Amino acid sequence: MVAPTLDAQAAVNDFIYKLKRRQVEGSLVTARLTAVLLRQVISQQRLASSAPAATLIETVKSVGLRIIAANPIELTVGNVVRRVLHIIREEEASLELKSLADVNNTILSDDEESEDASSFSAAVVAAANRNVLRAPSLHNLLESLPSSVTATCNASSGGESECKSKSGEKNSKVWRLKHSVIEGINELLQEIDSYHAQVAEQALQHIHHNEVIMTCGRSHAVLQFLLEAKKKRTFEVFVAEGAPRYQGQTLAKELADANLQTTLIADAAVFALISRVNMVVVGAHAVMADGGVMVPVGLHMIALAARRHTIPFVVLAGLHKLCPQYPQNPYIFMNDMKSPSDIIDFSDISDCLDGGIGSPSLQTVNPTFDFVPPDLVSLLITDIGGHTPSYVYRIVAEYYSAEDFVLR
Amino acid sequence: MCYVTRTSALEYEDIEVGKARLIERGEQIGDISLKARKTIAMLGQDFIRDGSTILTHGFSRVVLSILKLAAANKKHFSVVCTEGRPDSTGLQMAKEMVAIGVPITLIIDSAVAYTMESVDMLLVGADGVVESGGIINMIGTYQAAMVARSMNKPVYVAAESYKFARMYPLDQKAMFPSSRQVDFHYPLPSAVQVEFSSRDYTPPQYLTLLFTDLGVFTPSAVSDELIQLYL
Lengths: 408, 231
Hints:
The complex is a heterodimer of chains A (408) and B (231). Chain A is α/β, with parallel strands linked by helices. Chain A is built from 16 helices and 10 strands. Chain A has a 7-stranded mixed β-sheet. The radius of gyration of chain A is 27 Å and the shape is globular. In chain B, β2, α3 and β3 (104-107) form a beta-alpha-beta unit. Chain B starts with 14 loop residues before the first helix and ends with a helix. The mean pLDDT of chain B is 88. The chains are: A alpha/beta (408), B alpha/beta (231). The A-B interface holds A 135-139, 141-144, 289-291, 326, 328-329, 374, 390-391, 393-394, 397, 402, 405 and B 5-7, 9, 25, 28-29, 32, 46-47, 49, 161-162, 164, 208-209, 214-218, 220-221, 224, 228-231. Chain B: This is EIF-2B GDP-GTP exchange factor subunit alpha.
């Protein structure tokens, strides 16, 4: 395991401290801070000229495992770590391909070299090509690539550059890798910052005149979405208040301030009123790899009510919320049990807490999230467009590397 | 199902060398299969929680490896296994469960719907995974998956990646006739026709997830992986 430099260590420890004490809350803020931290770790990391990408990956993995462990419920931390790892792998692969093309070119141009050297390096290049570009396939399932070829490939590519005395070129290769990885992380940061705007842009495609939209609780993404649509459409909004935090009340006031016709209802009234609604739009805490979503508690019931009345259940989520994991036991492993004082005061129930059998007769449970399975979600609107839950695996394959799904 | 690969590595003049190469490739397939099963066991056992009951149909070595690893990781679960006519392979599964100390209940194939309300998931292997994301497995799998779906129980399939096949069956008759025949164990009048297929096709809408050595997939992801494999 490669440890980051001292400055980076201090920043990592500081971030872990904040995560553990829940001083960093909200997936957008967390994603941003994680990306900035990883960028700092990478830029300050000293890289050896042999296998620089592997060193970077090891460093990011070791830092990543620690910050994920600080708050396992906040899935965006793990998502951003995996995105950064994918960026490193991609940049390494594209630099490899470019350097292979360069070697090919130099072979063609260096005719004055001895015949042996050029033919040997051609074989090396071919072997390296096979190594880099080969994907698992049934045709070569039983063809084993002899390990000696790869060894000679590495040795002679080192020998090649030494005999051409281009050690400076290797250092520039390291610099290029770092530079392109940091550029990649900057793009990721830009994507995280602009996700609300990107999602809101698509509002006009989905909200039409004189429609009734329902939402629950308060999501920034939903707020922006509705305000953007308000600019060109007239519609009405039903807001379920979202007990026990009642943030729906705040959202209802914000929408009314923007001159949107809003109706505030209790969560229990959702089923009674949903037949009047054209579409349900909600924000998500996380999107799992099977297309299911982790949403604020109570939304699974609303999703079932929507399915019962065949009303589309639309979820807004940024790409940084996309998790490459499958929900194994989402109600328990990925749920945050908050303080029961949101539901009832301690003084009101303190007399029911001694059941005489060791555990209290009256228990209060306050989970934060609900898991909505993929067949209840009609559409996922992300910053790259609208997709069905069955398409999520494609997006995961594009933005994450399979080797990083389980971090060790 | 048969797995046929073509090799140019058999253009040897010496028959002994050719034979040795064939044996080597056979052993390699065995190794690949074992490694694949280990990966699938690691991925699959995460989905088994303490206190869960797993319904399985017939005998599958891949499913067995998942259950063995879950038991080795000290998870408390119980298994319900169908008898699996016509092969009665469920009896073999029951013996294996006893050997690893997992509580096992054996049911007749007709009792699948009866027991479905008390199980938490259906876990089966596959003889083949087809392009639509559906699977071909021992007869009775389609039935069990349909019942599981209607009762909202997840259906998990454990299959190695070399079982992926470029087939797209549109109905149950679209498969090759199976070599294993059904024996009713008592004499029938000659005019009685016997349905002797021992494999059925389960369409992808009844499946929840597939555990393969390439990772966990939803049925809709299978065709993408197939394209990669056959490139």
